[in-house]
Target: LuxR family two component transcriptional regulator
Amino acid sequence: MSEPTDTPIRVFLVDDHGLFRSGVRAELDRHVPDVTVVGEAGSVDEAVAAIRHVRPDVVLLDVHMPDGGGAEVLRQLRPELPDVVFLALSVSDAAEDVIAVIRAGARGYVTKTISGRELADAVRRVRSGDAVFSPRLAGFVLDVFSDRPGAAPPGDPELDLLTRRERDVLRLLARGYAYKEIAGELFISVKTVETHVSSVLRKTQLSNRYELSRWASDRRLV
Model:
């Protein structure tokens, strides 16, 4: 465990669940005197605007949010705020989620099973320059960024732009599902399916579902 710092570390929380943000704030305020929460946001747009204004030391960043998630926050802010450190804090332990945010510029990735004291230690460590991962997640990163035999192949930059839900929609679309069938399969509305498809078309710069199906097949998503 790292030692508490003399100067409080200013932390900003980004998560679309207000109750979770409140819990993290309370846990850090109660037990960790050298870490102070200076702001919070529940959406990508709100987070980008507030972080630009507050300029915290460390951002605790959720991976999945309705309007783009952690990778989108990183895409917009990382180039202009190089001194701000981003630590992903997510319920997901999927390799694709870990790799996407690390490629986007996060300094570490921990899951929401972490305790308050462990989270504070992770914040201190990334602030001091360490890379921090929950134990089983480190292997994903080592495999992808290693050139040793048997390592996972490098990620596709275009594929990394898609959120997990966009990939789910794309996978079903490429299998020939209609929008209504995709909505039923994923327990979302047809309108939401249309929104995800539009987002995927924009990100991939393709024109229609047939081109998307071919694109998905080329990347073995089907």
In short: The first strand starts at residue 9 and ends at 14. Strands lie at 9-14, 35-41, 58-61, 85-90, 108-111, 132-133. The domain at 157-219 is CATH 1.10.10.10 (Arc Repressor Mutant, subunit A).
